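To the wet lab folks,

You asked to see what we're planning to order before we commit. Fair enough. Below is the target structure as C-alpha cells, and below that is the sequence we designed to fit it. If anything looks off to you, flag it before the synthesis order goes out.
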C-alpha cells in the first residue's frame, strides 16, 4: 500500500473555494463515499469545509488530499479501503477534522481518496503536516501488518517489535545495490528523466498532427521517450493527421 499526497497548484478559484473542485472530482467518480464530521452528504461538504477553513485564514492551503493505492497482488474490498483510510486519519490525528473518503475503481488498481480539512471545526487549530511522508509511510506499514497485506516499497524498512511497527533507515548497502542495478540496466532510473528537447519535439509533433500514432511510437522508441499518451491525444493522432516518415519527424518539429 502506498500513500501519495496530492499537491494542487494554487489559483484564484482555489483560494476562494479550496474544496469544491476536489470534492466534485473524488465524489462524482466514486463507488463508495463516506463523510466525517460533516452535516448531510458530500454534496454539502465543500461549502461547510470552506466556512470552517475561515476560522484559520493563516492556513493558506486547508485542503489536504491523500491517495491510498494497492498493488496488483492485493484485492481489498471497498470496506477494506475505507478502514485503511480511517487508520490513516488516526495516525495523522485527523479523526476530529472534517473529511471525505471516496473509493475509486476507475483504474486497474483500486484506490481511495482522503480529503481532509486541516482546520479543526471547533477549535480552529491547524492539522500539522510536518514530515508527513514519514508519518504516512509508517501508517501504511502498520496498516499492512494489521490487515495481513504484503509490505510495499518505501524509504524505510518496517520492523515489528513488541507488538508495534517501527521504521528504521535502510542500510547503505541497500542503496548501493539499487545503484548497481540501475547501472546494469536491471532497474529503471527514476531520476534520469527525459531530455527537455526530446519532450518539446514529441509534444510539438503531436500538437500539430504531423505524424500518425503508429509513427509516433517509432519516434518514441528511437528518441527513448515513453510511448504513453492519454486517450484524447491518441484520438487526435489518429483522426485525419497527415502521415510522414518517422525519420523526418524531428526536422518537422522545429
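Sequence we intend to order:
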Amino acid at each position: 500500500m502506498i500513500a501519495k499526497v496530492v499537491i494542487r497548484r494554487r489559483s484564484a478559484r482555489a483560494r476562494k473555494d479550496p474544496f469544491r473542485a476536489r470534492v466534485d472530482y473524488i465524489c462524482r467518480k466514486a463507488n463508495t463515499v463516506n463523510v466525517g464530521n460533516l452535516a448531510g452528504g458530500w454534496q454539502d461538504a465543500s461549502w461547510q469545509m470552506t466556512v470552517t477553513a475561515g476560522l484559520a485564514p493563516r492556513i493558506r492551503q486547508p485542503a489536504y488530499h491523500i491517495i491510498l493505492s494497492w498493488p496488483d497482488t492485493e484485492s481489498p474490498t471497498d470496506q477494506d479501503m475505507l478502514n485503511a483510510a480511517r487508520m490513516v486519519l488516526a495516525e495523522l490525528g485527523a479523526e476530529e477534522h472534517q473529511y471525505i473518503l471516496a473509493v475509486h475503481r476507475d483504474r486497474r488498481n483500486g484506490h481511495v481518496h482522503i480529503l481532509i480539512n486541516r482546520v479543526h471545526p471547533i477549535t480552529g487549530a491547524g492539522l500539522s503536516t510536518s514530515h508527513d511522508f514519514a508519518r504516512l509511510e509508517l501508517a501504511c506499514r502498520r496498516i499492512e501488518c494489521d490487515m495481513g497485506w504484503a509490505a510495499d516499497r518505501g524509504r524505510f524498512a518496517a520492523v515489528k517489535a513488541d507488538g508495534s511497527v517501527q521504521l528504521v533507515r535502510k542500510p547503505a548497502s541497500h542503496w548501493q545495490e539499487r545503484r548497481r542495478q540501475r547501472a546494469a540496466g536491471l532497474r529503471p532510473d527514476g531520476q534520469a528523466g527525459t531530455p527537455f528537447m526530446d519532450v518539446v519535439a514529441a509534444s510539438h509533433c503531436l500538437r500539430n498532427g504531423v505524424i500518425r500514432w503508429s509513427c509516433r511510437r517509432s519516434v518514441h522508441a528511437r528518441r527513448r521517450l515513453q510511448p504513453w499518451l492519454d486517450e484524447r491525444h491518441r484520438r487526435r493522432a489518429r483522426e485525419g493527421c497527415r502521415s510522414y516518415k518517422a525519420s523526418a519527424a524531428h526536422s518537422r518539429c522545429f
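Structural context that might help your review: The domain at 2-147 is CATH 3.30.930.30 (BirA Bifunctional Protein; domain 2). Strands lie at 2-6, 32-36, 63-69, 99-104, 111-117, 156-161, 164-169.

Thanks,
Computational group
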